[in-house]
Design brief:
By secondary structure, this protein is mainly β. It has 2 helices and 25 strands. It has a 25-stranded antiparallel β-sheet that branches. The N terminus is likely disordered.
Length: 494
């Protein structure tokens, strides 16, 4: 199968997420996409030469939350570029979809292509076409076809900046009305390789009606790709769309912030390992931020903050952590959760320890005003190696809580399992499971599970993907028992 055929096959899986919460992701669909891309890479590596003129990249920023609030959003995209001799081909597709509590807030699809032929070192002419549909904006379809003339202001190995203009036709149906238009087309594109690991890109496409420049569409995009391995990169981008003549009851502009993973079938050029780091007995602190913003026909914002700090030496360790998640859609709060933990452990052997801990939880949607749990635990490291640890612990404590407006305090048992694995010099996996049990009431217990993947960008920066599941067997009245969240963001380690 040719690279072009592969690109067309992958175009069935294209970009999504416009108005919802980019900081919370759909696990099943994410894993499906990643598996698909990995299999695609195996086939590609066997059939494609290293110097192939094709560069094919797929990206995803998927989101899902369930429990007391239900939301899902999916951002998938495909781009393919061919450059050889005097010929250039650009192909792209994206699909944006999100829903909140059963209502669709985004559903759009776009596919575009362009062929350019170099006339001189800098001048080129070409043909372009695109198709776009957006249910939320009440745009059934908009199809464009045109000719263009362009010029590279800058064109070298690290930087390209081009301008192009042309004429074309547009056919659209919006708000139940059909239109055939003659359009102008003005496009600016920019790419710059900041370093071996980082590339920035930006584009503006302005398409006014031929005889009325006040009737126009505009799409502006900008982003940064940071490679984390030969085939994988982190992608952060912002997209702004403006329609001067929207359908009745719809807004003219939409803004989208996307954060996710990008995968290159051919691999990214000049990616080298940063090397391993020795682990010393000292403080290690990491903070992460995930942020999502959408405005226009749907309003939403998401904030995810986390803090993890640890101090280790031979006879003792201190573990501190906190996590805050907030999501709002159309001025209605969907998530507002704060969880924090502090623990001190003293070792009386190579692997066994006695610890004292304090846990705190506030969850507005579950109507948990507070849950405070001081405890004393006995723990043991089943595995304690440089690249892998596995520990279990349990002990008595007291729980103070206010749930559903009712305050309570009771003797409790706290238990936990913690696992860490340095898969390689650039990838780390963490997982934990904790429980709070009321011995006097077997129906009164709560569980919390976390799984985290850290993908190293540099000595201090990592891309962090976290899955969280919480379960309360005795929730407040009219509240669900469980909540699931998958979040992503940038982590700073110091």
């Amino acid at each position: 199968m040719s690279v072009l055929a592969k690109s067309l096959t992958i175009s069935c899986c294209v970009e999504a997420l416009k108005y919802s919460r980019p900081c919370i992701l759909s696990m099943n669909k994410s894993l499906t996409l990643l598996t698909f891309l990995s299999l695609s890479n195996l086939a590609y590596s066997e059939e494609t030469q290293p110097d192939s003129p094709w560069k094919v990249t797929g990206a995803t920023s998927l989101a899902h939350a369930s429990g007391n609030s239900d939301s899902a959003s999916h951002s998938l995209q495909l781009s393919a570029k061919y450059a050889k001799d005097k010929n250039e081909v650009f192909l792209g597709a994206d699909w944006l979809y999100s829903e909140s509590n059963g209502d669709t807030s985004t559903d759009s699809f776009r596919i575009q292509g362009q062929y350019n032929r170099q006339v001189t070192e800098r001048f080129f002419h070409g043909i372009n076409g695109s198709y776009f549909t957006d249910r939320v904006a009440d745009l059934d379809y908009r199809t464009e076809l045109g000719l263009s003339l362009g010029y590279y202001l800058i064109k070298n190995d690290d930087t390209s900046l081009s301008l192009e203009t042309g004429l074309g036709m547009a056919w659209e149906e919006q708000g139940g009305e059909s239109h055939d238009l003659v359009i102008n087309r003005f496009v600016q594109r920019f790419e710059h390789q900041l370093s071996k690991r980082a590339k920035i890109w930006q584009s503006i496409a302005f398409t006014p009606k031929f005889d009325d420049f006040n009737d126009y569409n505009l799409i502006a995009e900008a982003g940064i790709d940071t490679t984390i391995s030969e085939h994988w990169a982190l992608r952060s981008s912002v997209r702004y769309q403006y329609d001067s003549s929207p359908a009745a009851g719809r807004q003219s502009d939409d803004t989208t912030l996307l954060m996710g993973l990008s995968y290159s079938l051919g691999g990214f050029d000049d990616v080298k390992s940063t090397g391993s780091e020795s682990i010393a007995n000292s403080w290690s602190t990491a903070t992460s931020l995930g942020f999502g913003l959408n405005s226009g026909n749907s309003e939403s914002k998401t904030i995810g903050l986390s803090f993890d700090s640890s101090y280790r030496e031979r006879k003792r360790e201190v573990l501190l952590s906190s996590k805050y998640n907030f999501a709002e859609n159309d001025n209605s709060t969907d998530t507002d959760t704060l969880r924090a933990n502090a623990q001190y452990n003293h070792f009386f052997g190579e692997r066994s320890y006695l610890g004292a801990g304090l846990g705190y939880l506030r969850n507005q949607l579950s109507d948990i005003s507070y849950r405070i749990t001081p405890s004393v635990t006995f723990g043991h490291y089943l595995v304690k190696e440089d690249d892998m640890t596995l520990s279990v612990e349990a002990g008595p404590g007291v729980t103070f809580e206010k749930v559903g407006g009712i305050t309570d305090d009771y003797f409790s048992i706290s238990a936990a399992e913690k696992f860490t694995w340095s898969i390689n010099e650039n990838t780390e996996f963490k997982q934990s499971l904790s429980a709070i049990l009321d011995p006097s009431n077997s129906d009164n217990y709560s569980l919390a599970a976390d799984a985290q993947l850290n993908l190293k960008i540099s000595a201090m920066l990592s891309w962090q993907i976290t899955a969280t599941w919480t379960y309360d067997n005795a929730p407040a009245v009219d509240r669900g028992k469980d909540d699931t969240t998958l979040s992503t963001g940038i982590s700073l380690k110091f």
